[in-house]
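ARCHIVE CARD
Drawer: 12
Card no.: 0347
Subject: one protein chain, sequence and derived structure
Cross-reference: see card 0346
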Amino acid sequence: MNGCDLIGLDKAELADLMALLGEKPLRAKQLWHWLYLQGARDFGAMTSFAKSLRAHLEGEGYFVGRPGTVRDLQSVDGTRKWLLGFADGNEAETVYIPDMDEEGGALCVSTQVGCTLTCRFCHTGTQLLVRNLSAAEILGQFLIARDALGEWPTPTDTARKISNVVVMGMGEPLFNYDNLAKALLILMDGEGLSMSRRRITVSTSGVVPMMRRMGEELGVNLAVSLHAVTDDLRDRIMPINKKYPLAELMAACRTYPGLSNARRITFEYLMLKGLNDSMADAKALLRLTQGIPAKFNLIPFNPWPGAPFETPSHDSVKRFSDYLFEQGFSAPIRRPRGQDILAACGQLRSESVREKQSLSKARLAAGTRDDTEHTGQRA
């Protein structure tokens, strides 16, 4: 454990570290509080530690990590997006969405650099998977947001600027379950960041084998990116459906641990013009999810350059929503947030990737010109 980032270590690992340094167990608890209750970013701030211990930690190469902030953008609607850089040069994005009607807001967290799912409607999904994020990198997104919003020490009341965490950013969370679980267990610890599990929602595209495990071990809320009511359409727009078709996915939803009317599954339903936005689709959606305590989140398609789909009309989306409400289900229409900074659903990191691709092409073109000029001089 020599010379490592202390962020992302759980309580047992911090206790082992302090024992290795010959310190009492109390020091591990104090260190936990400095990291996750006070938000300390360096050992100098940890004033309950002797200077000798602080110097020892630093001398042995331990540090309090944070992702680097490559870019910090704010939308006209208050949404804020951070492009974060990691030690190996890779980047991911996290988004803070303030609530328009009350205090607080949701932090949308990423779990992978890129994505492996290749959903046809998602611009993020056009970017190849690079790697999983570590527990420290997942947790670091929350810490960066707390730093930026000035929310240290951890608030003791319910009035928090970050009132909810949604794991709906880049990547498929259940393909990086171990790192996700470790980060969320630290996030939920009552002696530190103290985020209630009822305030955390993890969204999956349908990794059926991991859903039950997550419910049993973490007890967080489940959201399912559904987007289609037939296997034929879902196969076309979400290739993961070929591995875990709707019958298997719905069976996993019905047996999700802790499911009740007070703790419903959120079915995210991206509405695509002429494909899944008819009244027949609305009725089929209720048949498909029959018997599951459910609520629906209707998302009009967010267009991006070259996208093969169109956004449905407002009237068709409203008819769809009204029908579900009439049948007794919550079915709000998600208002696009942060579109001017490409922070809306399915748009994460697309801007930074385009910039890098453009820069790469420019460098390649410049290199070609240099070679041509040099060849001409030799001739």
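Annotation on reverse: The CA atoms of residues 75 and 340 lie 6 Å apart. The chain has two domains: 11-59, 68-355.
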